[in-house]
Amino acid sequence: MRKPQKSVIEYRVYDLPDAFPVFYLGGDHWHISDVKSSRLHFHNCLEVGICRSDSGIIVFEDKPTPFRVGDVTVVSRNILHTTYSSPGESSLWTYMFMQPELLIPPYLHQSMQESRLLTEIEQNIFAIFPKAKYPQVFFLADRIAENLKTKPLNYVIDVQALCASFMIELMRIHSDSPLFGKGNVAGNALVLAPALDFLHDNYNQQFGIDKLADLCRMSLANFRRVFREIIGCSPLDFVHRTRITQARNLLRGTNLSMLEISERVGYMSISSFNRHFVEENGVSPSEWRKGSTELPKQNISLYSGWMLPENL
Q: For residue range 296-307, what is the model confidence (pLDDT) as tens digits?
């Protein structure tokens, strides 16, 4: 008897700079096919989407939910999902990927009440907000997107303030009447979520792979096997890729020396940093820095990047 085919899971990593951790994807080419993708995916950050035309289905883990034009979607970093349009349609989307805990100015972030709700929204919920029922959610999301698209004077400050208002609006809606679905972190690929969250916050520290296995409550051997099946590489390779991704940020956005960058991303020696950087990028850090102005401004994926809509 033929074995059922395994679902493909993608972990899509958005390389967001600490100074302004938000990324905009939009334009007339961001149409979603009406063919259901076999690839569920999840992100390392919060995804906010705005449906600009047509309708379709978003599958949150195993929950199909219809969407239509004007809907705003909020998907936190620990949620498996995929999107496809209604038969014969090709919905147009605007997407924003962000880390609100870093994007919102500290004095505002610290002043926000109900931090538990804020953490939930950032880490483990999903929801669709129809424009007619939640006009303020649409207004704020659209304003953020327009600022990121056109970059008017002082747009960074505007986006930070709008993001704070957007998160407060979501918190108010949730506190009045819980709307968000919650992800099953213990299920499917998200069994790795504790390890991925730890890596996200501690990639520059020294730790063993056994620490990641313990966080996921697995034996070391089982953790290595599951990690490779889901992410597509070994846990150690993923640690190095995460560090090198952050190193590219520093090479492109700062004047720090190679030694300072290697230490900031977690390498104990400059030779180890150089070796892993060359393995990942094919050139040395200094060569990469010289050519970085010619490279895309956004390096998205440690697994399989998503800079253009899927052609199915």
A: 333 323 333 343
Distance CA 236, CA 221 (A): 13
**Are 44 and 23 contacting, i.e. CB atoms less than 8 angstroms apart?**
no
The distance from CA 82 to its chain's CA centroid, rounded to whole angstroms, is 14
Do both 158 and 269 map to the same domain?
Answer: no
**47 and 155 together in one domain:** yes
Task: Give the phi and the psi of residue 219 in degrees, each rounded to 5.
Answer: -70, 160
Mean pLDDT, residues 164-192: 75
Handedness of CA 244, 250, 255, 260 (dihedral sign): negative
Q: Are 216 and 177 within one domain?
A: no
What is the four-CA torsion angle of 296, 93, 304, 289, rounded to 10 degrees? 10
CB atoms within 10 A of CB 176: 8
Beta-strand ranges (E) seen in the chain are 8-12, 22-25, 31-32, 39-43, 46-51, 55-60, 63-68, 72-75, 81-85, 91-98, 125-129, 181-182
* 132's tokens: 């007619």
- Would you state the pLDDT for residue 292? 59
The owner of tokens 């334009």 is: 27
For 117-144, give the secondary structure using H, E and C: HHHHHHHCEEEEECCCCCHHHHHHHHHH
CATH number, domain with residue 205: 1.10.10.60
Q: In Å, how far from its chain's centre is CA 77?
A: 6
What residue numbers bound the domain in which 13 lies? 8-182
- pTM score: 0.70
